[in-house]
Write a structure and sequence with these properties.
- By secondary structure, the protein is an alpha+beta fold.
- It has one domain: Lyase, Ornithine Decarboxylase, Chain A, domain 1 (Beta Barrel).
- About 15% of the residues lie in helices and about 30% in strands.
- A 4-stranded mixed β-sheet has the order 1-2-4-5, with no helix packed on it. Strands 3-6 form a two-stranded antiparallel ribbon.
- A hairpin with a 7-residue loop joins strand 4 and strand 5.
- The longest helix has 5 residues.
- The radius of gyration is 18 Å and the shape is globular.
- The two termini are about 30 Å apart.
- The relative contact order is 0.19.
Length: about 140
């Protein structure tokens, strides 16, 4: 949770996900719950909106309840299911997140997080432009 913005009417928590890895709230008005995973035993009594990192109206959850959030807290969106992974995209060239399987108290990464290099790996610069593009 890198950013908290208190507008006076609502508190927004900005997260490192968004509509590129969970488009269902924008497409279908899907409703999810979130928990502060690293502080799950604390009282979740603050109402917040959880916003993604994209420039459009990227709100994942309008009325989540959490403890008072701090930078580096981990928010887990519950019961997203397999559809989010199959619907995820590299919208705005954002790498896709890891997929973690949680069951009976254990958690395992079953799909690794993409890197920026993964996102551009298949890009090809046409020969006619190859001398005109500066490499980073």
């Amino acid at each position: 949770v890198p950013i908290l913005d208190e507008t006076g009417t609502r508190t927004y928590a900005s997260v490192d996900g968004g509509l590129s890895d969970n488009p269902r709230p924008q497409l279908y008005d899907a409703v999810y719950e979130a928990r502060c995973a690293n502080r799950a035993d604390e009282t979740h009594d603050k109402q917040i909106a959880i916003a993604g990192k994209h420039c459009e109206t990227d709100v994942l959850i309008w009325n989540a309840t959490c403890p008072e959030l701090r930078p580096d807290d981990i928010l887990a969106v519950l019961t997203t299911g397999a559809y989010n992974f199959s619907m995820a995209s590299n919208y705005n060239r954002v790498p896709r997140p890891a997929v973690v399987l949680v069951n009976d108290g254990s958690a395992e990464v079953i799909v690794r997080r993409e890197t920026p290099e993964d996102v551009v790996r298949r890009d090809v610069i046409p020969m006619r432009l190859s001398g005109k593009v500066q490499q980073a």
